[in-house]
Design a protein that fits this description.
This protein is an all-alpha fold. It is about 75% helix and about 0% strand. Helix 2 runs parallel beside helix 11 and helix 6 crosses helix 7. The two termini are about 40 Å apart.
């Protein structure tokens, strides 16, 4: 109960920060239900992860949960901290929202990949020192981050230099010029003839250059109404985020296959955490890629709303698993089992956790289990 009070107290402080950020700068995204629940759920998961980290012994799981605490904590608190800083320091800046969004997204996916990669490395290289495995994980994440996100490290305004957005600006400018010349509704052919389009990264499929340019201009015109242009601007960023999420999915699948063949005992609930991370990373890859396919900003908002609830569902499953592990490692049996994993894992078998017991109870016949396992029966006098 003492630990629970500490968790609720610390989480309550994060909720106050979330509310203060929304009050200080409410126009940044509004205060929808999912918009509040997602960072609240993430911050709670970060708090629980921190307490698991504090209770862990010196095995690799300690740094695994430190990564989770950092990832979910930053994900939950970065937005209210930005909202407060926006109000206090640079409310008049027109670039701050873009800088925050793109670099917060970069940090989010790099921390997520660190959580996954270190978990996989710790699974596969059990005999190496913990610090060595963490260094290897950091090197892999750093290398992947440089390969995928290096344009954003070199130029904060990289998105404005992408060919598609450059051509979009040229199309928008050409429409304005043609309308000033008396052409109220210029066609795609007229716009393509007037605008000087840079070579785009869209295959022409053997069609003539003129037909290709007209089709390309028609595609870019879909981004003209309202805030639709933001989808085109952020498309390269989302594509890179989907790629790094896909890498995390592949790493988790590799870890699951490796564990299937090796089948060595692991820490309680760790295998189930890996299975929960798989849909979480899969949703992140799917969300980021689906953002690139929409040209309407309202459709984008709908996808974000649905994606938030899907991510929260997995977060709550992870919260259950983290809480169960926290309770387990505080017991005498849990401390003994985790110590034996470090000292002599070959002499112990896999721990049957609370979820295993529930599954056996729900989906198997107890009498069948009696015939398969040695049990102690009570005798009657």
């Amino acid at each position: 109960m003492k630990t629970l009070r500490k968790i609720l107290l610390l989480w309550g402080a994060t909720l106050v920060l979330l509310g203060a950020g929304a009050i200080a700068y409410p126009q940044f995204g509004g205060v929808s239900v999912s918009d509040f629940l997602l960072p609240a759920s993430s911050s709670l998961l970060g708090v629980v992860s921190y307490f698991v980290y504090r209770r862990e012994n010196g095995n690799g799981a300690k740094l695994v949960f430190l990564n989770f605490a950092l990832f979910f904590g930053v994900n939950g608190l970065s937005r209210p901290l930005y909202q407060l800083a926006k109000t206090a320091f640079f409310s008049s800046s027109t670039w701050s929202n873009l800088y925050y969004y793109q670099y917060n997204l970069l940090v989010y996916f790099l921390l997520l990949s660190l959580c996954v990669i270190h978990l996989v490395v710790d699974y596969m290289v059990a005999v190496r020192p913990t610090y060595a495995k963490y260094v290897v994980s950091l090197v892999i994440v750093g290398a992947v981050g440089l390969v995928v996100f290096h344009p954003f490290f070199l130029d904060a305004k990289f998105l404005y230099s992408v060919t598609d957005y450059h051509n979009f600006v040229a199309v928008r400018r050409s429409i304005t010029v043609l309308q000033s010349q008396g052409i109220a509704n210029p066609s795609s052919e007229e716009i393509a003839s007037h605008a000087q389009l840079a070579q785009a990264d869209i295959a022409s499929n053997g069609e003539s250059l003129k037909m290709y340019q007209e089709r390309y201009v028609a595609h870019l015109r879909e981004y003209l109404p309202g805030n639709n242009y933001v989808s085109l601007l952020l498309k390269p960023l989302w594509l890179r985020c989907s790629k790094i999420s896909l890498l995390s999915v592949l790493m988790l699948l590799f870890c699951i296959v490796h564990q299937y063949f090796i089948d060595s005992p692991r820490g309680a609930y760790m295998e189930k955490i890996v299975w929960c991370l798989l849909p979480y990373c899969g949703f992140e890859a799917l969300h980021s890629y689906s953002y690139t396919t929409v040209t309407n900003w309202d459709a984008f908002d709908n996808i974000v709303e649905v994606g938030a609830y899907l991510s929260m569902a997995v977060m709550w499953m992870l919260l259950l698993l983290f809480s169960l592990r926290l309770r387990f490692i505080d017991t005498i049996e849990g401390k003994y089992y985790e110590r034996r994993l470090l000292s002599d894992p070959s002499r112990i078998t896999r721990w049957r956790d609370a979820l295993d017991n529930w599954l056996l109870k729900e989906f198997m016949n107890p009498r069948e289990l009696d015939r398969r396992f040695l049990i102690q029966r009570r005798t009657e006098d």
